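Is zinc ion placement plausible here? Inputs below.
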Amino acid sequence: MTFFCKLVLAPRLTLLLVAAASLTFPMRGQQSARRAASTAERPEVKNLFWQPNEVMQGSPVLITVELSGPAREVTGTWLGKRIRFAPSDKPRQWVALAGADVDQAPGSFDVKVRATIRGRVAQLAKPIEVKEAQFGTGEVSVAQDYVNPTPDEQKQIAHDGVLKEHAFASLIPRQLWNGNFIKPVDAESTPSFGESRLMNEEKTSRHLGTDFPTKEGTRVYASNAGVVALAAPLFYEGNCVIVDHGDGVFTVYMHLEKMTVHRGERVRKHAEIGSSGRTGRVTGPHLHFEVVWNKSHLDPVELLALTLPDRTARGGSRAAR
Ligand SMILES: [Zn+2]
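Reply from A.M.:
I modeled the complex. Tokens:
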């Protein structure tokens, strides 16, 4: 009986030992490989690139950073403004939307990036050249009150300024936008961004957005996902909706006939936010569409042309970023 037990146990013991050994040795191998990798591969910002290739006054810019490993936080600065990056749709790539204001002086300006990778700080700086853009000039005639507002109207203009400042001051510290921005209305735009406009032959004003002439009552859509930061009737802007896309990126829709959203409402990309009209300072029915990043006015048509990462397509690559 005893002998029989020994015979049965012995192979089992051998099997257990073999199993334990096969478990132990690869683990040791993995650890030493990891140690070698951590000394050979220092955490670093491997690359920093952007689109469009040619950055002009008023250009929105998608900045991408490529890291050597998973990061906890990636931040940066450009043109004196803070940038907060978010994981892209590709592993170890982080992205942010930024841009050069329409009135930014041309020149070469370093974008500086700082990433915390495995508890260590890695940095990289690269210059982005901002080239001079050629903006048009035009003459328009509007109701005289819009050039020389009455004292009461001046009060409303001051109040509107507070409302807008409050809307643009909100900071949602994450990117609510995802994928490309879409045209906010089914109409063709005019090349009107940055235009210097002489109004009623007496006052010059910079046109900070793009106009989409279209008949009153045409549906207007949110260009990307976000939160409504303002939906109110203003003196110059008429019925005006501002959508906050997070991380300092906003889109603005002016002169609306109707607004169908409220402040604080969450909107999806392509959600109907109202209809186009001719409220406020206008010469005719159109949608005036603006893009603002950290108080910089950017060219909406250029933003619509950018190919932006779609994070919903990222799937299960979260752990690898
Ligand atoms: Zn306009």
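Short version: Residues 1-40 form one domain.
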